[in-house]
Amino acid sequence: MKMQRGDAVTRKSTPLSAQDVADLAAIRRAPEFAASTEAATLNRLLRIGMDAVLERQMEEGYRVLGEQRGSDIAERRSVARRRRPSWADEP
Q: How far apart are CA 19 and CA 26, in angstroms?
């Protein structure tokens, strides 16, 4: 049987502070979480947080690639400016 994203593989316990418990209770009162169990709500919150972290990592990666590409372009232009033009040898 092929596993899908979101299929439970393992269960982990996580410590929650008093503030975490209060925040979780407030979130569970929201309409989109009202019918969910506490575990399902925590799972959705974890997924939302993980997606946000992954998105931030991708943005950072694209930023680094953009900087590298920018320096590569500047270097190529510099080399091209120093290169003798092909028509320079024409009589």
A: 11
